[in-house]
Amino acid sequence: MSTQSDNRFQAIISHAKEYGFVFQSSEIYDGLSAVYDYGPYGSELKKNIRDYWWKSMTQMHENIVGVDAAIFMHPTTWKASGHVDNFSDPMIDNKDSKKRYRVDHLIEGFAETLTEKGETQKAETILKEMDVLLAKEDYAGLKELIVSNNMKCSVSGTCNWTDIRQFNLMFDTKLGSVTDEADTIYLRPETAQGIFVNFLNVQKTARMKIPFGIAQTGKAFRNEIVARQFIFRMREFEQMEMQFFVRPGTEGEWYKYWKEARLQWHLSLGIDAAKYRYHDHVKLAHYAKEACDIEFDFPMGFKEVEGIHSRSDFDLSQHQQYSKKKMQYFDADVDSATGKPYGNYVPYVVETSIGLDRMFLLILSNAYDEETLTKEDGSTDSRVVMHIPAKIAPIKLAILPLTKKDGLPELARELMNECKPHFRCFYEEKDAIGKRYRRMDAIGTPFCVTIDHQSKEDGTVTIRYRDTMQQERVPMSKVKEIVLQQIF
RNA sequence: GCGGAAGUAGCUCACCUGGUAGAGCGACAGCUUCCCAAGCUGUAGGUAGCGGGUUCGAGUCCCGUCUUCCGCUCCA
């Protein structure tokens, strides 16, 4: 990373705090690692992003409905989803190189080199033994397997290993007052399962026909080993996801559809397409048929902001198996190939999953700008401006009487009362007008209206646009409409 | 988790080899009424991240700890 982008990231983090977007959690107690709070403007922006997503998914798609599932779920949910097994990876460290490995990766890597050397038989034996030991969670046995086969660290070349430790990425807690093993429940590590377990409830009550989607936003929790880069990777975060249920065999075309549709959503916010790219997964998770990330050019480089996954019928089938409840849909549409209805099947799923906090960081990163301005007399000036899309800006309109006497505040208050039921407004009469403009630039307010002496005479005001700094004179009675037009 | 760097006012930072904590910007109250911040007056705000040690004396030296950024690692 260059020093320049490094500084830019630092500047954005400072700005986020100074102007009430993001604070570190429990800061007065030295903070809590990788946990953050959203401040007055941050909570507003975050809510606006969420609402914009929600509207685009549900209101704009007649075949997508929402749910709001609980964070706590039955423990078996996470067995079915595979999180209990796959989200707790045993790890081992090399004491010399300080390098950490996932135990299964280390052993698989070793087996691979054996295979390359032609010792296929031995490699298979080791892998089999590993599977048995992993299933038993026999960490001493696994370490013995590593040591006895003289598996070396690729960096230090030594065999000086620590004991194997378990890192469970799911937070657990106790349900009920009695502390008992059986009462251990998890804070959901993803929101998707709340959709899958409600699949039939939703389908039946909302009378949905395939293809249809279920959307949800909400908190999820992961006990990351390393969580860093400001709000990019947090232990408590919010997801916005939509699971789209389709007839098996059509998942390919829907995957393609959503991959394109989701990028269009990002571009609809007016963000430069050159800052986005797709990253198609080559190595797929066991359940996935196709998967890609939408990546954004953050100050620290291109990083994932959203994922689109073709998940097959993995999730619903798993829940069907573990719950012993049918997760089927009866498709009455006639298959032209057979002339008969498609009948009962477990639907396939195409998922779109976006991190709300990451989207927030994306907006901040994209919006933050330190501009150098040349004044009329040739001298230079600077301003920090947040080019937040007007649709999601925390404050839409600032109403600023040029002076605080001569009846201007009264006039400004009239406009304030007219506009504030419709969108978030901000009233300010303190300090010079230029200073007030700069303050609004810093929190990304797209429109400022100034009430001056002429306003009293002819009922016109000046509206000033954040990005261009241009002003135009308009009737005060039109202000509400002008703003409404640009925020929808 | 390992390694590197850092933590002093809301922000950016200063305080040189240990000697009772400062500036600029910002905020607040008032003056000014000025259409693109940094005019005037006044005010508030820090037990120098936290804990311990050395010392007559620690922001400064040592140890621990927490937090942040960077690299490695991790990211079903």
Question: Which features would summarize this protein structure in a list?
Answer:
RNA-binding; 488 residues
Description:
The chain is an alpha+beta fold. Helix content is 36%, strand content 27%. It has 16 helices and 23 strands. It has helices spanning 3-18, 40-59, 76-81, 83-86, 103-116, 120-136, 139-148, 192-196, 199-205, 251-267, 314-323, 356-367, 408-419, 433-443, 453-458, 479-487; strands spanning 22-24, 36-38, 64-66, 88-93, 100-102, 165-168, 172-174, 184-186, 212-221, 236-246, 276-280, 290-298, 301-312, 329-335, 340-345, 348-355, 368-374, 380-386, 397-401, 425-427, 447-451, 460-465, 471-475. It has a 7-stranded mixed β-sheet. Helix 2 crosses helix 12 (356-367) and helix 6 (120-136) packs antiparallel against helix 7 (139-148). The longest helix is centred in the first third of the chain and has 20 residues, at 40-59. It is globular and about 90 Å long. The model has no long low-confidence stretch (mean pLDDT 88). It binds one RNA strand of 76 nucleotides through helix 1, helix 4, strand 4, strand 5 and strand 18.
Write the SSE topology.
Layout (H helix, E strand, L loop, with lengths): L2 H16 L3 E3 L11 E3 L1 H20 L4 E3 L9 H6 L1 H4 L1 E6 L6 E3 H14 L3 H17 L2 H10 L16 E4 L3 E3 L9 E3 L5 H5 L2 H7 L6 E10 L14 E11 L4 H17 L8 E5 L9 E9 L2 E12 L1 H10 L5 E7 L4 E6 L2 E8 H12 E7 L5 E7 L10 E5 L6 H12 L5 E3 L5 H11 L3 E5 L1 H6 L1 E6 L5 E5 L3 H9 L1
Parallel strand pairs: 3-9, 19-20, 19-21
Antiparallel strand pairs: 1-2, 4-5, 4-6, 7-8, 9-10, 10-16, 11-12, 12-13, 13-16, 14-15, 17-18, 21-22, 22-23
Helix pairs in contact: 2-12, 5-6, 6-7
The protein binds one RNA strand of 76 nucleotides through helix 1, helix 4, strand 4, strand 5 and strand 18.
